[in-house]
Specification:
By secondary structure, the protein is an alpha/beta fold. It is built from 9 helices and 29 strands. It folds into 3 domains: 194 residues, FAD/NAD(P)-binding domain; 133 residues, FAD/NAD(P)-binding domain (3-Layer(bba) Sandwich), CATH 3.50.50; 88 residues, no CATH class. The strands form 8 sheets. Strands 1, 2, 5, 6, 7, 8 and 21 form a 7-stranded mixed beta sheet that branches. A 5-stranded parallel beta sheet has the order 10-17-11-12-13. Strands 24-22-29-26-27 form a 5-stranded mixed beta sheet, with no helix packed on it.
């Protein structure tokens, strides 16, 4: 019987496991399906990580190594090359984790607590139904990143990128530095889905055009991509006839969104938030099933790994408190959203919560704006000012004990322009 099993050995899983050890758990196991720990960070060889967490600029592997060094100072076990097939919630604090590996075969492990830290996956061409031929040369941006940075394969020479998510923007720069010609980055929305700093550093600094309110409407090619047709879209996302642009290229990279890797979450019967496609969690990252916690991109897609680590440490600490029976439960109140706010994480707060870190995204670009937190009676508990908010950048507010004290019923987070 394990005290805690952490599913996923990326930045979320590493942070949760280290924190659980610090809080007193001594029988902790990390299960990772890849051949080494570190997760997606291993292929992110660009810098820009760690500015919030370590106050220094690191590459992805360097950031992962910081936590691997911390892990090496603990007694936490880790099994790599191990696929988790199912999480079966149990009664009386005994959950089952079904996993399989070439070295150990099929196993059913018992644990008092589970932290879900499986990360996220990319949307594919099939998810967005791009018309046209089906030739070689079409990759998700993350797949191309792994091929280039870890496997040593150059995926193409003349490239069009669909979607302006951060991975796509970073790959625009990476492909350029490797000698490819990036012809365009195309975004169906009227705003970019990535961080402003990535738009500047990865597109503008390399004179790569960004076409907003455009999408790919045709892919041409027999054995390999030969042309991509891009069209402008109207306010209803419908291509506008007569606006077609044809790019002669051999590669199309898709950066069209990330989805929490939530199959295990759904299979376990955990409540899912349809807005995030991740688990509904409380302020300590506990799911709807007691003793099962979730953190990182499996809950909602983050823009900075620093926030993943911070959130995951809360999950690890809460899992330790649960196992050591120092309390994580109690009555909860819903946390709702209104105005420009698309969703919040957490979606629930314990009535006894003394402080709450709230993360959310807006659904449109806002200039000078105000974030308000109100209770069920309409009483304003807090307000925060922002000079700018955009869908591609996650917002963070902290509700202090003073703000939460005396709040009635459900809380609502809203945002509106001034």
């Amino acid at each position: 019987m394990y005290d805690l099993i952490v599913i996923g050995g990326g930045p979320a899983g590493l942070a949760a496991a280290c924190r659980a050890w610090e809080e007193g758990l001594r029988n902790v196991l990390i299960l990772e399906r890849d051949k080494e720990l570190g997760g997606i960070l291993n292929q992110c060889i660009h810098n820009g990580f760690g500015l919030h967490r370590f106050r220094t600029e690191l590459t992805g592997p360097e950031y992962a190594q910081r936590f691997l060094d911390l892990l090496s100072q603990t007694g936490v076990q880790s099994w790599t090359d191990t696929m988790v097939l199912e999480v079966v919630p149990g009664e009386n604090g005994a959950h089952q984790v079904h996993c399989v590996s070439s070295g150990r075969g099929y196993q059913v492990l018992e644990t008092r607590a589970v932290v879900l830290a499986m990360g996220c996956r990319e949307r594919t061409r099939g998810a967005i139904a791009i018309p046209g031929e089906r030739p070689a040369g079409i990759f998700t941006a993350g797949t191309a990143q792994r091929y280039l940075n870890m496997e040593g394969y150059m995926v193409g020479r003349r490239v069009v990128i669909l979607g302006s998510g951060d991975i796509g923007l970073i790959m625009a720069r990476r492909m350029t530095l490797e000698g490819a010609k990036v012809l365009a980055c195309v975004e169906v929305m009227p705003y970019s889905g990535g961080l402003t700093r990535n738009i500047v550093q990865c597109l503008q600094d390399f004179d790569i055009p960004l076409y907003l309110s455009h999408t790919v409407t045709d892919i041409r090619g027999h054995d390999r991509v030969e042309q991509v047709v891009v069209s402008q879209v109207d306010d209803h996302m419908v291509p506008v006839p007569g606006t077609e642009m044809t790019f002669d290229c051999d590669t199309l990279l898709l950066s069209v969104g990330l989805i929490p890797e939530n199959e295990l979450t759904r299979q376990a019967g955990i409540q899912i938030d349809p807005r995030t496609s991740g688990a509904v969690v409380t302020e300590n990252m506990e799911t709807s099933i007691p003793g099962i916690f979730a953190c990182g991109n499996v809950v909602h897609v983050h823009d900075l790994v620093d926030f993943v680590s911070e959130e995951s440490e809360r999950a690890g600490a809460a899992a330790a408190r649960y196992v050591l029976q120092t309390g994580t439960g109690g009555a909860v109140r819903p946390l709702r959203c209104a105005g420009a706010v698309r969703y919040t994480v957490p979606q629930q707060l314990h009535q006894s919560a003394e402080q709450a870190d709230i993360f959310f995204r807006v659904g449109q670009v806002l200039g000078n704006s105000t974030i308000r937190v109100t209770d069920e009676s309409g009483k304003e508990l807090a307000h925060f000012s922002r000079q700018r908010m955009a869908p591609g950048e996650m917002e963070h507010i902290v509700l202090s004990p003073i703000m939460l004290r005396g709040a009635a019923g459900a809380l609502t987070v809203s945002a509106e322009g001034v």
